[in-house]
Design a protein that fits this description.
157 residues; mainly alpha; Arc Repressor Mutant, subunit A; 6 helices; 3 strands; globular
Amino acid sequence: MNSPDPAPPLPDRRDSVGYLTNWAARLLAKAMDDRLGPLGLASGYLPVFFALAGGAEMTQRDLAKLAAIEQPTMAATLARMERDGLVTRRPSPHDGRSALVALSAQAMQRVPDVVAAVADINGRALAGLSANEAAALRNALRTVIGNLEPGADTDPA
């Protein structure tokens, strides 16, 4: 009886783009959460926070699309943000079935601190890279995103 062919050797995870980007994303999210926690935010709030930081109002549906997440996930995020006093909702004057979401006055006051915190964490993440290397990394990540999600916005919030 023939024995099955041996399985091919496993790739070294340190050479796997998937492993490395996942690991980096988890570390970035943890660092962001640690830094944003004292400001009353979590990293998962950032797509909504920055989409609304300029004073815009958006529907839950539009926010979900912008953040590239499902509507139920966005609904839960907005519920937590509303509970935490970060967003307000008002009925849409154009569609009685939807609400417009905006940052609360309390959240708007935190915008400069949140921008500074995010810049600090991004700076830590890119420490040791030249400006050209950092730009090349951002461009490479945009390409990876474009390769995996055709038609998606390659500059996520």
